[in-house]
Amino acid sequence: MIGIVLLYMLFSGCEEKADYRATCTVPIGRLLLSEEWLELGVVQMNEVQEKWIRIFNPTQKPVSLSIMENPEENTGLKVTYHKGKKHVPATQTFILPGGHVDSLLVTFSPQHDNPYGEFLYAEYLKCDGEILMTGIKVSGIVVDNFENVLPDKAPRGILNQDSITFQFDQGKQVPVAFDVEIRNDGYSNLIVRKVEVTCSCVMTELNDTIIAPGKSSTLHAKFTPEGLAGSFWQEIRLVTNDPTTPLKTVFIKCHVKEK
After folding, report:
1. For the segment 200-211, what is each residue's pLDDT rounded down to a tens digit?
2. How many Å apart are CA 227 and CA 256, to the nearest integer?
3. Helix or strand or coil: residue 41?
4. Could you tell me the pTM of the whole model?
5. 52 near 104, Cβ under 8 Å?
6. DSSP string of 175-211?
């Protein structure tokens, strides 16, 4: 009976390791990763996000690996690996034998010195002393922490419109202006932490970034159509301290008629 159990554990372990190798399909240098882009979505301040990345060495030779020191300070991003029962910073070199799989733990916890809004960080691997310029990317959007916000004390932001449609003839790049009203129907000040756009063809200006309960502010926007024909869209994103919908998006839909 013991022999059967040991045999089962042996084959189960082999199958598990084989499955791990099968998940590593993204080439970075001579290595294969399970993924290279970690999309964390909306992350609250001081909230801890963790994701594992598996690394497979498909060669027959061992390689030495480390993560390059991040030149950006206070990003809240750390990469570690298991060494015994400890998590060791992956900036320290470790060895990945040929044909083996190892794992990196990517941890992101934004602090108050992190900027609000969209972020994109890259961690670069050093393999046998060579810097691999295709790195591990970590992206998402940082918002306020709402853990201790009471519903009867919270702000509530309302947009008077969240979608605008334009039509243009190709070749006409005359900017068009429009306004979006942001009203606070909540119980405390609504704070617009950041206004972001997805294209340089959109320019914005916000009258007031702090909106008292019952008051409103106006977002002035100017959109210049691009020269290409067809349909496309852009976004204006407002990062606010509204715990219900911290991200408020205005979609700009555009159709450029071909000459």
Report:
1. 989 999 999 999
2. 8
3. strand
4. 0.83
5. yes
6. -EEEEEEEEE-SSS-EEEEEEEESSTTEEEEES-SEE
